[in-house]
Amino acid sequence: MLFGFPLLSLVIWLPIIVGLIVLAIGNDRNTLLSRWLSLVGAIFGLIVALPLYTRFDPALSTMQFVEQYVWFERLNVYYHVGVDGISMPLILLNCFITPLVVIAGWEVIRERVSQYLGAFLIMSGIVNGVFASLDAVLFYTFWEASLIPMFIIIGVWGGPNRVYAAIKFFLYTLLGSLLMLIALIYLYHVSDGSFSILDYHQLPIAMTPQILIFIAFLLAFAVKVPMWPVHTWLPDAHVEAPTGGSVVLAAILLKLGGYGFLRFSLPIAPDASLYLADLIVLLSLIAVVYIGLVALMQQDMKKLIAYSSVSHMGFVTLGFFMLNGLGVEGAMVQMISHGFISGAMFLCVGVLYDRLHSRQIADYGGVINKMPIFAAFFMLFAMANAGLPGTSGFVGEFMVIMGAIEVNFWYAFFAAMTLILGAAYTLWMYKRVIFGAVANSNVEGLEDISKREFILLVILAIAVLWLGIYPFPLTEIMHATVDNLLEHMTHSKL
Questions:
Q1: Which long-range contacts (C-beta less than 8 Å, at least 24 apart) are formed by 1-9?
Q2: DSSP 349
Q3: What is the pLDDT of residue 493?
Q4: Please, what's the b/e burial string for 392-407 (b: 16 or more CB within 10 A of its CB; e: otherwise)?
């Protein structure tokens, strides 16, 4: 309990309620009130989530902060929420990113301000609901609802092709989710009328149904990650989305797919996961290597970072399907790290775009001469994106590579290619944009970052360095839960 309210419900519903209030009272004549109310709501959303960490017992692998209330009694549908060492860090990441997105749009968004900020707050609460849900109907409701705010954000505040990108994003993710719904309905029937996700983990399911369930979940989660070859919606969505939309899309929404593998695919279909692990590993390595090469060819900074996200999220699915402690924990660390780094990279591109209204690498050059403070921050995040030791980008990748070596040397070898390719496309972009002589009169007129931008980048820089130097507080939280998951899978082998 916090302030007399159940803690998890407060974490889920506080941002949603504040977002609805912002929508109700905001208009373009009173934007300052909308901005401040949104910022206060986002900060309180983070504050009420902190006890999830401070009161969390890392020695337990069971669900904590559990709440359960009858929702639809006839079908045994419950408002059932709880967190463990897998879901709790992702909720904290979401609550951490939301205030930054509000600050990032403080001066940039000038039309429909209340609707823009309200959409992000509502989406923040919905995403917390996805990570906390322990009832399949509740999970699916939050999962589908998370599409709506992002669809609106891209479609209303995006670039010239925003409608195409928004519809493509919506259709890809919706079609994958429909197959997941079919799998959940099947599980409801074989579990004698239960929608409890934890009950599904204990079901004795034969191999053939397991494979079909796994494939249904795979199509839903692979689109969300996104895995190759169902990744093509992501570059379009990133390029057209406003900066805040790109930050949340990369830092938070992509993690829903990774979370789905750990909560559904691995524990519900353990034998199918073991049987099809090599297929997922192959798709993940293609994402790591091939998409890394595709990123090298990009001339649009946002599109380059979008392809970079596909490559780095390939590391996440690779780690999960190494099916050992180092691999799974490394993939979890990679998800949190990617949230920090991708968010920071998109914010840096947004800083440049707000000044020159161009994302083309060729339109820049010599930015360091006019924006030295910005160039220093951008260098840190670029190095982290390339996996520099001492930054968060290195920790998760190193753990996944070590986990891969335990399974197959060649898995680790190809996975390690990302350290080379990541350095190649990230630093080549950085060199062309930042270094050299001032390229043109537009760059000549640039001014260094404002106090607002400085605060944003400092916060993310601290997060990237903290996780890179001292990841123990994060790995300690997830250790018992990951061990329990792997033990469950071991005991389920046919």
A1: 2/48, 2/51, 3/48, 6/65, 6/67, 7/48, 7/51, 7/52, 7/55, 7/65, 8/52, 8/65, 8/67, 8/81, 8/82, 8/83, 8/132, 9/67, 9/81
A2: H
A3: 47
A4: bbbbbbbbbbebbbeb
Q: pLDDT tens digits for 375-399?
A: 999 999 999 988 889 899 889 888 8
Distance, CA of 366 to chain centre: 32
Q: What is the mean pLDDT of the chain?
A: 87
Question: What number of CA atoms fall less than 13 Å from residue 158's CA on the CB side?
Answer: 26
> Does the pLDDT at position 494 exceed 60?
no
- Whole-number Cα distances in Å, 368 to 26, 352, 371, 438, 447: 39, 12, 5, 8, 11
Strand partners, 79: 69
| Enclosing H/E stretch for 296 | helix 277-296
CA distance 154 to 244: 10
Torsion sign (Cα): 467, 470, 473, 477: positive
What single string gives the DSSP state of each residue in 194-259? --BHHHHTT----HHHHHHHHHHHHHHHHHHTTPTTS-THHHHHHHHS-HHHHHHIIIIIHHHHHH
CA distance 9 to 23: 21
Q: What are the phi and psi torsion angles at 408 (to 5°)?
A: -160, 125
pLDDT for 47 beyond 90: yes
Structure-token match 């990441």, residue found? 93
- CB under 8 Å to 287, separation ≥6 — which residues? 227, 228, 231, 310, 311, 313, 314, 317
Expressed in percent and rounded to 5, the helix, strand and coil fractions of the chain are 75, 5, 20
Distance CA 155, CA 160 (A): 10
Distance between CA atoms of 267 and 214, rounded to whole angstroms? 10
pTM over 0.85: yes
> 412, 385, 316: which is closest to 86 by C-alpha?
316
Residue 335 CA to residue 259 CA, distance in Å, equals: 9
Q: Is the dihedral of CA 267, 271, 273, 274 positive or negative?
A: positive
| Mean pLDDT, residues 269-296 taken together | 86
Tokens of 123: 């989406």
